[in-house]
Design a protein that fits this description.
With 449 residues, the chain is an alpha/beta fold. It has helices spanning 14-26, 42-54, 58-80, 86-110, 115-122, 124-139, 166-182, 209-219, 253-261, 272-278, 332-342, 367-374, 402-409, 433-448, and strands spanning 2-6, 32-36, 144-146, 186-190, 193-195, 201-203, 224-229, 250-252, 282-286, 295-298, 307-322, 350-352, 356-361, 379-393, 415-423, 426-432. It folds into 2 domains: 2-229, 3-Layer(aba) Sandwich (Carbamate kinase); 307-448, 2-Layer Sandwich (VC0802-like), CATH 3.30.2130.10. Strands 3-4-2-1-7-9-10-8 form an 8-stranded mixed beta sheet, with helices on both faces. It is globular. The protein starts with a strand and ends with a helix. Bound molecules: adenosine-5'-diphosphate, aspartic acid and magnesium ion (MG).
Length: 449
């Protein structure tokens, strides 16, 4: 059993969809599950439409629907001209978009956009793209069926960043998929979406199709999970920012998690966690260059370089709390953490001194309440629009000179906060967002020149 996930750019046009079907047909395993994202740009358009509807600009929301309609209708036209399935696909496209229009009108009328309604809206792109690809696979003579992932991918009700409910989803996924794949039928389904036990649509968070592929792979005991995307693998840095970035042939689970968490968008940060538990390798491959070997992510790797990659995560908020009361007192940090816990806001990095603590967060929905309550503990200062820059490697504690090289490379960049030593494989620090790319470039030059 193998799970293949194709991202938005791999599905961006009719030609790309055709290529995806060819790649699926060429997969070595007879038992295959295909997990698909929305066509590129569609999830953004869906969310923008909801925001426009909320802002009482229904016209602009409906323009987003027109754009989504054109994008899919063009693909259907190009792929199915003269085919008897064309009409059915078009009717279905229209039916889904009519439903979307009703949702937008509801948001517009009520002036309310809950996380639950946003999930119902933002998952539509996956339902559309997967229908077209499934029809294409059948039209090309492959035994393939389309399944609605919401029938088996059961999650909690944390809309917008739902978590898998393994006890429910494992038997549901196995019984929905295994009889089909066992009989040689390829299952084509959606990434990103799931549903609660009571049937409400959920999403796993932006970029969550990778996570879906891993969840499905684990539920089915797959041999391998393949993430097909638009780059040759996991690289020493984001190739869109660093022209000289190089592919890493092998990456450990731990390194991949750390890189994904700290900004390597090529993989959703939660993807590796389920794969680790069942020790299922994850391979990253390029849809446009399938002959390239890609990156294999697995338990143990042979690489020996000290520094493996650099990454940056933008849109970070830094909170500084300083209080002379903290001096020699106990319970201060526990109190501060309790506030973050109360507002369910994860902390990424932390640095403390005798009288102050600095923290970074990337979820700011409850920032006002958070800072309000933190004021009980000391003076609170917030810096938004910061970025975490991370250097990921191995055995940092056993090597001397790494921090020296890092800070030397960044001698002309203002570093807002440093957090090192918590992990043996990561050194992270915070800079202003405007400095993040330059920091990455200078570090990449220092370590990979
Ligand atoms: P998909 O639509 O296939 O899910 P994404 O856009 O989510 O694709 O992820 C692929 C992108 O991740 C690449 O185009 C690249 O710009 C970015 N990226 C960031 N860091 C890295 C890295 N270390 N290695 C490879 N790609 C990276
Ligand atoms: N389509 C979703 C997104 O854009 C999920 C994904 O692409 O992984 O976030
Ligand atoms: Mg992605």
């Amino acid at each position: 059993m193998i799970v293949l996930k194709f991202g938005g750019t791999s599905l961006g046009s009719a030609e790309r969809m055709q290529q995806v079907v060819e790649l699926v047909a060429a997969a070595p395993d007879r038992e295959r599950v295909i997990v698909l994202s929305a066509m590129s740009g569609v999830t953004n358009a869906l969310i923008e439409g909801a925001e426009k509807a909320l802002a009482r600009d229904l016209g602009a929301a409906l323009e987003r629907i027109d754009w989504i309609h054109r994008k899919h209708a063009q693909a259907i036209d190009a792929l199915f001209a003269g085919s008897p399935v064309k009409d059915g696909l078009e009717r279905e496209l229209e039916a889904r978009l009519d439903e979307l229009k009703i949702l937008y009108k509801g948001i517009n009328y009520l002036g309310e956009l809950t996380r639950r309604s946003l999930d119902a809206v933002s998952g539509v792109g996956e339902l559309l793209s997967s229908r077209i690809v499934a029809a294409l696979a059948s039209a090309r003579g492959h035994r393939a069926v389309w399944l609605d992932a919401r029938q088996f991918l059961v999650t909690d009700a944390d809309f917008g960043r739902a978590n898998p409910l393994w006890d429910e989803l494992t038997p549901a996924t196995r019984s929905a998929i295994l009889p089909l794949t066992g009989a040689g039928t390829t299952v084509i389904t959606q990434g990103f979406i799931g549903s609660t036990t009571s049937g409400a649509s959920t999403t796993l968070g932006r970029g969550g199709s990778d996570y879906s592929a891993a969840i499905i792979g684990v539920a089915l005991d797959a041999r391998e999970i393949q993430i097909w995307t638009d780059v040759d693998g996991m690289m020493t840095a984001d190739p869109r920012i660093i022209a000289g970035a190089r592919v890493l042939p092998e990456v450990s689970f731990q390194e991949a998690s750390e890189l994904a968490y700290f900004g390597a968008k090529v993989l959703h940060p939660s993807t590796i966690k389920p794969a680790v538990e069942k020790n299922i390798p994850v391979r990253i491959l390029n849809t446009m260059r399938p002959d390239q070997p890609g990156t294999l992510i697995k338990d143990q790797v042979k690489a020996t370089e000290t520094i493996r990659a650099v990454a940056a995560k933008k849109g970070i908020t830094v909170i500084f709390i300083s209080s002379p009361r903290m001096l020699m007192s106990h319970g201060f940090l526990a109190g501060v953490f309790a506030v973050f816990d109360k507002y369910r806001t994860p902390i990424d990095l932390i640095a403390t001194s005798e009288i102050s603590v600095s923290l970074t967060i990337d979820q700011t929905e409850n920032l006002q309440q958070l800072t309000g309550e933190l004021a009980d503990y000391g003076d609170v200062r917030v810096v938004s629009d910061a970025a975490i820059v991370s250097v990921v490697g191995r055995q940092f504690r056993e090597q001397s000179g790494i921090a020296g090289r890092v800070f030397n490379a960044l001698s002309d960049i203002n570093i807002i906060m440093i957090s090192g030593g918590a992990s043996d494989i990561n050194l992270s620090f915070v800079v202003g967002s405007e400095d993040a790319d330059r920091a990455m470039k200078q570090l990449h030059t220092e370590f990979f020149r």
